[in-house]
Amino acid sequence: MDVEKTLHMKEGVGVTSYAQNSSLQKNGLDRVKPITEEAAINMLCSTNYPRSLVIADLGCASGPNTFSVLITIIKTICGRYREASLLLPEFQVYLNDLLGNDFNSVFRALPSFHESIGEKEGVFGSCFVAGVPGSFYGRLFPSNSLHFVHSSYSLHWLSRVPLGLYGEDGVPPNKGKIYISEASPPCVPKAYFSQFKKDFSLFLKSRSEEMIDGGRMVLMLLGRRTDNPCDKDATFLWEIFAKAFAYLVSKEKVDSYDVPFYAPSLKEVEEEVMREGSFQIEHVEVLNTHRKHNHCRKIVMAVRSINEPMLKQHFGEKINDNLFEKYGEILEKEMAQVETKEISFSIVLRKSH
Whole-prediction pTM value? Predict the structure, then answer.
């Protein structure tokens, strides 16, 4: 699987699009809004209220969440400039995602975004927006140029399907599964963790070169509560996926599909930040969200809007409706019997001198 080409949220504004099915992510962003605001304020104190501010949203996707976060950041910054009786700064905003992202929808929403910040903050004409396609597991911006970086619900996606999921003989050890499970041999979680460490380290190194000293980075990603990579909360939805696949496609086809995803523990994230050494951890918050049985339909639609482009590339278009109908049936039965949580981390990093 070529992740850079196939990993993107479902485009457009249709019934199964990400734009119409990202309310669960919006709830998470709303919960960490005070953290984002505080990080923006602390950034200003560390950088002495610059005349020109550069903000990057990495993994921006498309739909209403993209600009709601930016409005929060810009509103907070403008409020502090007014309190300090300073002229409002110019803003350069970079919107980044992979090549297949629906940037057309993003750009079509720009007039309403400019109108919103123009009316609310008086910065219309002083906010310049650019799209930056490409993987954030590598350099994207000039050195020492970014003041504030935001990324939500993106860093649990890996740059590639991990190496080590197939033996030298080409036989997959994770038979019948598409992600880590209790039935997986030890080489499977090891391969996923190894790829996460490599990717996250490269992400941090790249941002350290791009950010100015004292800049802030607010990251939000899915994770797990325990050190066990087979933690039920982290693997539950993927286990249901594998069961749904078993009804519809051949075993060989399932065995050849592995998701480029990893839900790290908080310890794994923190250790990699400290090992890389360019950032100080300023704030950490763990968010636990119960998966409610009456939200089953919403979960199915959200999962579909995220995974459908990858599934279409691997299995073809015909499988999707049947797959998610079966997925919904199994998920509803399982959620009636088992209580699980969605675990996510909100982390604020300060670029060290």
Answer: 0.87
